[in-house]
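Our preliminary data section would be incomplete without showing what the modeling component actually yields. Below, a chain of 83 amino acids is followed by its predicted structure, encoded as tokens that our downstream tools consume directly.
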Amino acid sequence: MPWFTSTILIRALPAIADAAIAFIATNIDDLIVTMLFFAQVNQQFKKHHIYMGQYYGNSFFTIERRPKLTPVVSFCAPPFINL
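Predicted structure:
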């Protein structure tokens, strides 16, 4: 294995592990919050309100985050990726 490949792997593994831990923690948190919402379903607060809230929330954060993330990705990405 060439030295640059091993160097990249050594530097990337902690970042990958951090990303995996953050992903797992976020999903557990989302699962707990969603379960709490489903526990409060009644005549006025129905299941479709929860589903629509999930879609609206995810759509909002995706649309809101896109312009802010683009300069970060283009700054951090190596030039050979052509972003």
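Residues 15-73 form one domain. The two ends are 27 Å apart (CA to CA). Preliminary results of this kind motivate Aim 1 of the renewal.
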